Amino acid sequence: MEFAVSRAGTTLVTLHEGTDTTARDEATDELATRLESLAVDGTISDFEITDATVYEHPTAPFDPYTITLEFTVEVIVDADDDASAEEIGASAIAEALENADVSSISYTSSPAVSAD
Q1: CA–CA separation, 13 and 96 (whole Å)
Q2: What is the DSSP secondary-structure string of the chain?
Q3: How many Cα atoms occupy the beta-carbon half-sphere of 103 within 13 Å?
Q4: Which superkingdom does the taxonomy of this entry point to (predicted)?
Q5: What mean pLDDT comes out for the span 70-79?
Q6: pTM, to two decimals
Q7: What's the pLDDT score for residue 104?
Q8: What is the rounded CA–CA span in Å between residue 42 and residue 39?
Q9: The domain that contains 100 carries what CATH number?
């Protein structure tokens, strides 16, 4: 049986930009590009970036911004039941994000399972 498994999380992106707004926009674009590549190759079925906030401002003129991005990722898995789908989906999401070089991930929810 097919199940959709989704999970919310946060990640940190560090980059050099001129303002808070451009730093948040660039960090969002960078994460979106990585997640879009996963969607195109079928590794994930859907994603959403829900928020971008400045985690750490530059302390000197050439220091980078660190941006916190909140996101949700969904995968479709084949499993016998909800519990198996949750386990398989959580592993698939973690592996996909690791392969896309999304680091410093903190999951903010348990995997959510729904019959697809």
Answers
A1: 17
A2: -EEEEEEEEEEEEEE--SSHHHHHHHHHHHHHHHHHHHHHTTS-SEEEEEEEEEEE--SSTTPPEEEEEEEEEEEEEE-SSHHHHHHHHHHHHHHHHHHTT--S-EE-S--EEEE-
A3: 4
A4: Archaea
A5: 98
A6: 0.93
A7: 92
A8: 5
A9: 3.30.70
Q: What's phi and psi for 45, nearest 5 deg?
A: -100, -25
- CB of 11 within 8 A of CB of 28? no
pLDDT tens digits, residue range 26-48?
A: 999 999 999 999 999 999 999 99
Quick one: average pLDDT of 69-95?
A: 97
Give me the domain span that covers residue 22.
2-115
Please give the pLDDT value at position 61. Answer: 85
User: Do residues 97 and 105 make contact, with C-beta atoms less than 8 angstroms apart?
Assistant: yes
Between strands 46-56 and 106-107, the pairing is: unpaired
